[in-house]
Amino acid sequence: MSLSSSLLENAVDQLATLPGIGRRTAMRLALELLRREVHEVVRFAEAIRALRENVRYCERCCNISDKPVCEICSNPARDSGLICVVEDIRDVIAIENTRQFKGLYHVLGGVISPMDGIGPDDLHTHELMERIAQGGVREVVLALGGTLEGDTTGFYLNRKLNEQAVLVTTIARGISVGAELDQADEITLGRSIADRKPFEHSIKR
Amino acid sequence: MSLSSSLLENAVDQLATLPGIGRRTAMRLALELLRREVHEVVRFAEAIRALRENVRYCERCCNISDKPVCEICSNPARDSGLICVVEDIRDVIAIENTRQFKGLYHVLGGVISPMDGIGPDDLHTHELMERIAQGGVREVVLALGGTLEGDTTGFYLNRKLNEQAVLVTTIARGISVGAELDQADEITLGRSIADRKPFEHSIKR
Question: pTM for the whole thing?
Fold first, then answer.
């Protein structure tokens, strides 16, 4: 696709670098932006530029935060002895929405992915080890995605954390609540059988 | 979804204004941009800002162009008596790729859409009428999408163009080449029967 305008070509090239956006969609987005008022598009571009240039992270949990210490970390009602390790801010939002977790978080900023050249040093693993070394943490919950990269990251962190006096747990994997067994994939179903637990309120023998 | 950072919130809000991008996808894009180098994101934002601030249009056909008169309009080998009216630059690229059209274009920059508050005056219709009024154009081909908005725009332009001494034609609608009849929608199939034409090389009676 050769265009009559290098400005358009440049904008389409840049938009097409975003994940899930091909050149055809990028062109549609560029034409949509062209239909807007100049000040609207300037505000759009500035919001993206400001995000990257001025982003700040919580100095304790490494989550994106406007304040030096985020609201979760600075909340005295939360259990500071329990740390949940997640990939990014989306996982924090998802877990917060469950209202089931009263501890603190540690945001890795990604997962180990040799394919993408992302190793442990590219993530906030060092900060996690420092937090544990400072003491006061009794349990670290690994809440990582059920992907190969999530598993790799979990194995790595478990090995590192086992060097310290801290209990390492991981979130349960199994059949989704409300799901049919014959719809589940074999690996998940197999795991949910291997990880079976006593039925609630049943008589313990 | 309330976020711990107004910078992130702002960028997600802006990305979510793009067509086809919801807040979940916008968040994914914002986190992807955060993983990049600062200079890469600045280049990304600048490309979008520059597109809207510095965009220029061909003064004859209204297509996006770096030069005052685009390469198609300034090509003496093309038939200046034949003008193909299209919605936007994507249609120009699509028609150019067919290598079937040797005339010039007129880019409307959109279609009439009362639902979105877009009327004839928001498009480059006035420029089209001026081009015809200058003389030398014998045929205008309306190559608009087969949507309600495309049809409305076609009806409007046909009425306006009929006031001038110019032949108005429209691209053929029918069954796609290589398509099965039972896969086509009823309106298209009905139209292709109503618009039937003599079989090529058949004896004319």
Answer: 0.79
